Amino acid sequence: MKLLQAIKQFAVNDPGRIAFLNSGTTLTYGELWDRSDQLAAYFLKQTRRPQSPILVYGHMGPEMIVSFLGSVKSGHPYIPVDVSIPVVRINKIIESAKPEFFIATEEMEDDGFLKYPIEILQSTALEEILLGSVQQPPAEAWVKGDENFYIIYTSGSTGNPKGVQISMNNLQSFVDWILKDFSINGQQNFLNQAPFSFDLSVMDLYPALCSGGTLFSITKDMIANPKTLFAELEASDVNVWTSTPSFAQMCLMEPNFKLELLPNLETFLFCGEILPVKLAKQLMDRFPRARIFNLYGPTEATVAVTKLEVTKEVLDSHSVLPIGYCKDDTELLVINENGKPAVDGEKGELVIIGPSVSKGYLGEPLLTEKSFSINNGQRSYRTGDAGYRKDGVFYYSGRLDFQVKVHGYRMEMEEIEYNITISPYVKTCVVEPVYCDGKIDFLNAYVVPNNHSFEKEYQLTSAIRKELSQQLPAYMIPRKFTYLDRLPMTANGKVNRKKLAAGVLI
Ligand code: AMP
Questions:
Q1: Domains assigned to the chain
Q2: 245 with 270: CB under 8 angstroms?
């Protein structure tokens, strides 16, 4: 409620202020508020199931944000789905979430393949609604308290994506923290690098809108064309940079990526994967006036729960950067192998307890029960991340399972393996990450193929890739395919992943 009221205040007091900007497209606070009201009024009339989700499909356009607010102002959570997600996966999301509406802010190439009956609002119909005569739905209709605000689908080990439910309270706790602890003092320009279907985007979207800031989105077309990207970046004049470390690493390859390009850059917020010391040092050299923060957290606890300011002293005294300190309203525990709180310096699983912890995975009570619990009215989430605490500071030390991050994208090896194995060309397969400088560089799929008629391995690979691209977004498809007659086994009959990772193939 507070969050929507904050946005409303800017829309009422300064309607011409720019809320969103990319490639020449702008959206003012006034337009954002009125158009999302229009959409909310439409949904209040048209929806039949209270709090049913609304799927919002598209890329980084202004209609996405209008649709998000339109959904929550009518009491419905939204599910952001980026254009990079293939139709088969969208169908899985629809099957899981049973949304009442599908807003297509971008053309869908093959919407005919949507397997489930769902009302689709294409861009022309959407435009008619948005530009109709102004209606104002009552604030009582807005999503509130523990009701879902958004549902973000992440990779799941069962072969299907799982929907993390984030409530109004969860999001409010996160936004309050960002506004308070990171010198967000209004009217700043925020970089939005992550597509809206990744929760990293929440780190810029709502802090920007709740502080009267302007969101500057980087589209996939800009990323594909570095010349345009840097011209747009220069024009953006961003003050708050939010991205994965991998994206900043990519930008650093361009020598002009420095203070002169973004003279007013004040803050770097990094989250989602390890922030390497070397990268932080390079950024400090190129942007001597900017503050750099390493944030840590999973989608299940609303973006991030810890932060560390990376100062020169921190860089000089660490070879691996800590993830820092937990936000005030939250507790981070390290639980050792015996299920007891770990002592200082002892490794264990990181467990998050606090108001930004999700109620769980939509429609998945068993999966939810495995990782979430409630103690004394507080929700807790077992992250599956290994870590420890030393002298009051938290450190991250990898995963306890098969979840990985490749260039900032979260994925479960098991989901990729499942989707490769269902290909008729494949008997069995395992996927292993390949590291470079302690960071995952790419994924290697070790495949035992079925009999096939391809003359060359690359032909087989391209046939498998083609099938995979129908199931998984491009970033989840392994870069390398290695073919084997059989997979190496351990003495107790499991696939010997260690051997594969070490390059021993039989
Ligand atoms: P996601 O749900 O996509 O945000 O991914 C969450 C996972 O990313 C966490 O459980 C960690 O494994 C990893 N992660 C997030 N932030 C950091 C960080 N600052 N350093 C290392 N790993 C991180």
A1: 2-312 (3.40.50.12780), 322-399 (2.30.38.10), 403-501 (3.30.300.30)
A2: yes
